[in-house]
Amino acid sequence: MQFIISGILVGTAYAVLAIGFCLIWGAARIVYLTYTAFYMLTAYFFYVLCTLIGLNIFLAALLSIIISTLIGIATYRLCIERIRGHETIVILVSIALAFFFEEGIRSIFGSLFRRVPPFISGYQELLGVRVLNQYILAFGVNLALIIGLWLFLSKSKIGLAIRATSQDREIVSLMGISEKKVSAVAVTLGIGLGTVSSVMVAPIYVVEPAMWVPPIAMVLAIVVLGGLGSLKGSLIAAYILGFSECAVVSYLPIGTFVKGAVALLVMIVILFLRPEGMFGVNFEEERL
Amino acid sequence: MTKRIVMIVVSLWVFSLITIGLTGEAKSQTGKSIKIGVLSPMKFIDGFNLWRGAEMASDEINKAGGVRVAGVKKPIELIKIDTNEELSVTDAVMAAEKSITVDKVDFLIGMRRSEAALAMQEIVMKYKKVLIGVGALHPQQCTRVAEDYNKYKYYFLIAPNSANVGKVLLYHLEDVSKRVREELALEKAKLAILAEKIIWADPVVKAVETNAARIGFEVVGVWRPSSMGTDVTAELSAIKATGAHVIFQVASGPMGITLAKQWGELRIPATLVGGSSEAISRHYWEATGGYGAYTTAMTSFLRVKITDKTIPFWDAYVKRYNDFPTNTAGTYDAIYVLKEGIERAGTIDSDAVVSELEKTDYVGITGRIKFYARDHAFPHNVVFGPGFITWVVSQFSEGGKIGCIWPHGWEGVTYEGSEGYKIPPWVVEYWKKRK
Predict the structure, then answer these.
(1) How many structural domains are present in chain B?
(2) Considering chain B, what is the average pLDDT of its residues?
(3) Model pTM greater than 0.90?
């Protein structure tokens, strides 16, 4: 039971991050590796506003999400948008930007581990397993984000435009939709998902400058496993890798340090069987 | 007019001669400074403790006139060398080499992470510079001295190596075992080992596994998460499911803080003991949000009377930095040991200083410091045991007060001011309800 509950919680947390990344890839067609650096920046803004300045926790969370998302958009517009057509350059620039943010934060705050308070402290016992209230809240918020995003992409005009852009950018342009603007909206949405995820999980973890590294590795594994650009694939892959990690902790405790590697191994095995990922499609086909 | 000009020029010349003479004499009295490089990951807790300990010692020595070398008092000039070793071994090696080739240091002290320390040791030995290790505890640093004395003789380790530190943890664990079995009326207590996958933790884990049965434990599992792990709720759930009464942790990265925070908030019904190097500072208390209460940690000294110097140093440190010192502030002792070695040698020549350091018998803040001889298994490592360096174990209580809980009668050693181990109340309550 412990394995199942942990797997669901971890998988859901991964899913939101991966879906945000996937959304950016699908619409803007960029591998935006700076993505989880905004997740890290959000945690630091949350720390400064809530712990240091002492703002109300909800206001601090909201401001952190807004500020980080704005920085994310500005970074995209200033550094990435103009080189969007050059995939390799985008990868290099985005990873350099992530390190820039990490080092910037390190030079301001040092490498000390910081704490932000939980929205709800304490725990609940679910079927004999103790789960932090904050984890339950994060699960609920993450689930709501996934459902909300699904509805947004299915029902709203801009959501349909994002899906259309993901399917065929040229046709979308011919139909009078600004592919550039739609991509910018998708990037904003994607980064926004990452920042909300950050304020939810930062109280569970520790806040530190390198906290963006483990999630980006996992996010990449998830989106590749799910099939590049497939939100449904990312969702399922997130749970597969989340459960894989928890299985290692439960059944191979001595190898807990390789739980991430085992999750990546699962990815490799599945890619051997299905190289395009579980829900991978050709660019001409529908991907969202 | 010409006569007046000549008079002025002559006066200026005489004045300048006198001035140069005086300053020259002053310089000959104080001499050129002795450059000591502090190798440290400066942005980390243990890193800035390495620096602070050295800074306090050098300030005191310089205030008293400096280090007397062949009758001349020379001030200490500390050089800050940020090794970034927690994140990059390559950075550490480059920083160590630069300190010798560019900064021209005479001596080196510090280091924190064994993986990096082993690499830095190689570089420093190549340049035949005396290096006193303080925070990186892997025994290989000293076994190298045994294997190739001529190459590695410039290295000294002023803290017990991890094999001896493992013993401290075992003794502490034995105390915990007795206490838990008495309080919970158990014949054998269940032990879960949760140790980061770091090089110095390996011998500790092995020692605990080997000795667990002897000290009244049944090991229910060994978890080895990554040192950079940020979530251990799955591990804690798995441990709780095993029915463990005690969790023995070895941590030095962010995992130590996450573990204490999540363990305390989840009220896991198993005591959390062991060696998180973070669990000594005030920062740890703040970062865990107070959930670090009842966790234990091993360190080189606490505010107890290990020697007459310990409590005054502790108080001076807290006053100056508004924090509790961690074990790496033992650079304070390292500087004094080095000072005495240099003064006895009467030179800063490495070989002469090594010969004198081998004769060290100095009472510092961490205890009486002597080094094992060349024929010992760990030459140039500080002597470990009662009457020498023992290290201590701390425990945070509710409210953030830090106390000493070990040694508490071990080999007849109880430092004035120490107290016994306290089991978290929710652990006692949980197990008593299940009876």
Answers:
(1) 2
(2) 89
(3) no
